[in-house]
Amino acid sequence: MQRHLLRRLFSSSSPFAPQKRARSGLAAVSEAVESAAVLPNMPPFGYSPPPYDGPRAAEILRKRSEFLSPSMFYLYKKPLNIVDGKMQYLYDEDGRRYLDAFGGIATVCCGHCHPEVIEAIINQTKRLQHSTILYLNNAIADFAEALAGKMPGDLKVVFFTNSGTEANELAMMIARLYTGCHDIISLRNAYHGNAAGTMGATAQCNWKFNVVQSGVHHALNPDQYRGVFGSDGEKYAKDVEEIINYGTSGNVAGFISEAIQGVGGILELAPGYLPAVYKTIKKAGGLCIADEVQAGFARTGSHFWGFEAHGVVPDIVTMAKGIGNGIPIGAVVTTPEIAQVLTRRSYFNTFGGNPVCTAGAHAVLKVIEKEKLQENALIVGSYLKNRLGALQEKHEIIGDVRGRGLMLGVEFVTDRQQKTPAKAEIVHVMEQMKDMGVLVGKGGFHGNVFRITPPLCFTKEDADFLTDVMDIALSKL
Length: 477
Ligand code: PMP
Hints:
five-stranded antiparallel β-sheet; binds 4'-deoxy-4'-aminopyridoxal-5'-phosphate; 477 residues; Aspartate Aminotransferase, domain 1; alpha/beta; seven-stranded mixed β-sheet
C-alpha cells in the first residue's frame, strides 16, 4: 500500500482522521484508500472531540424504530450517529469529521459550541430559568428590544414562541382576528410548520399530502426555474388576485410566504412578485406575513431579512431556527396596532421566550453582528454560488443553481430540456458526498434539490472542499 496515500488518509485534514475506533478492518481501509486517491483535502481544523463510549448507531437505530415516531426519516441509508460538533464541523461516533453544509439553519455555528452563546445560556441557567409570563425578567425584555431594533417600519412588538410552527400558527391567528376573515393564501410548494393550521398552509412535496384546512388557498408558485412565467413576478401575482376575486368573499385574512422557499428547494420568489401580491392583499384588507424561519438572521448575506431583497415591509414577521442557533425559540413581530387584537383574548405562552432561551438568542444576535456573519454569508455565499455555477457548466445533470448568500440550491435533472427530476441520482451523489465528508440537505417538490444552508461561519476553503467533493461524486455517476 502506498505510504503517501496512507499518510494523506489519516492526516488531520482528511475526514478519515482522527479515528477513535478502528473501522471494520482491511476492507474499510482499502475502500478508504481507493477514495483517498482522489479525495480533496478537508480544510485543517485544530480540534479533536473527546472519545465517545456511548451506544453505537445500530443500537440507537433499533431504539428509534421501536420507540420513536415512525414518520421520522433519515438522510442516509446508514444513518450517522453524530456525537460532537465544533463550528461548521460535526463528528460521528468514530471521531470522523464532516463538513456540515446543512446544519438546521444554525447561524453562528452548527448549533452547539459558540463560547459566548454557551456562556450566556449557562449564566442565565445558573441564575434563573422560569416561565416567560408572570414576572418581570430583563433577559426577555432586552432581547425583545434588540430584535425590534433589527426590524423596519413599525414592526416593534415581539411575541415569543418555542418554534417556527408556533410562530406561524400565531401569525395566522392574529391575521384572522385582526381582519375578521378566515381565508389565508399561501404558496404551492410552501412549508410553514407541523401543526394543523400550518400544515394546511403547507403545500409541499408530491410524495406526501398536506393536512387539508378550510379557508386555505394555495397560489401559483413564482418559481423562476419551473414556473410558467419564468422570472416575471407580476404575472404570477395575478393568481392571488383571482383567488381573492373568485375563491373568497373578496376579503382575506392574510398571505403567508417565505422570500426564498427553504424546504421547497431554495426557490427565490420571482422579482416583482411580493410587491404586487402585498398590494393586492392590502387592498383586500388582509395582512402580509413573512416567514423568515429560514431566510432570516443574515443568511441571505445581502440583507438581514429575506423579504428586504424584495423591497416590501410585511405586517407580521415570523422567525425561528437561526434566531437561537439551535435553542428552542421562535418569534412573531408585528406592529403595536395589530398586536392589540390579542389583548382581547387570553393569550400567553408559558415557555416561549423564557429567560434561558432569550439570553442565548440575544447572545446569538450579538455574535452575528460582532463576527460580521452577514458579510461572511455574502462573500462566501457568492463565492460558493460561482463555484457551483462552474460545476453546472461541467455536469449536465445540474439543471439549476440558485439562492442567495448561504442559502443555496442545486437542482438535479436527467434532461435539461424536460427538467426531469433526477431523484435516484441525487440520492447517490448525496451518499457519496457523505462518504467523502460533506453533509448537504435535500428537498424540493420532487426531492431532487440539494439544499446548502451551512452555519454562517462557513469559509471559502469549506466552499472549495464542498464543490470539489461534489465534482468527484458527479464525475463518478
Ligand atoms: N417555516 C419554515 C419556512 C420552515 O422551514 C420551518 C421548519 N423547517 C418551519 C416554519 C417550522 O419550524 P419548526 O420546525 O421550528 O416548527
